[in-house]
Here is the input.
Amino acid sequence: MYKSYDEFTKLLNKKNFQKRIDKLAKKYEGKKIIIYGAGILFDAITKNYDLSKLNIIGVADIKFDTGEEYQGFKAYDPEDLVETDFDVILISMYEPDNAEEFLEEQIIPEHKKFKYEPFLQNSIFDLLKELFLRS
Here is the structure.
């Protein structure tokens, strides 16, 4: 089911993903950002795009124990986000619905108010769905 790193990279390039990053950096200037999801899509983003304008304080994924490091970012177990000081979560997953559900049920009731949104735009999600349906 998973596509290759190269396919994700081509798709992101096709949609000029750096513009999306720059727009998010402007929108969330001065905000502490957590990236939720550290799979192949996140790898394609971090290895091909400049994230330096985003104030990313860490990456959360179920495969991490809090305190580890992943690609130069502090890693978090998603359950530990309740105790973490951040303002925004950018969801870096092909299907962000699961992450949104977890955040709404597990983190939001216990944490101060924060914003979250998918890292990818809807048009990219549509292309990803099309790509997966063809396989």
Q: What stands out?
A: The first strand starts at residue 33 and ends at 36. The chain has one domain: 5-133. Residues 79 and 106 are 8 Å apart (CA to CA).
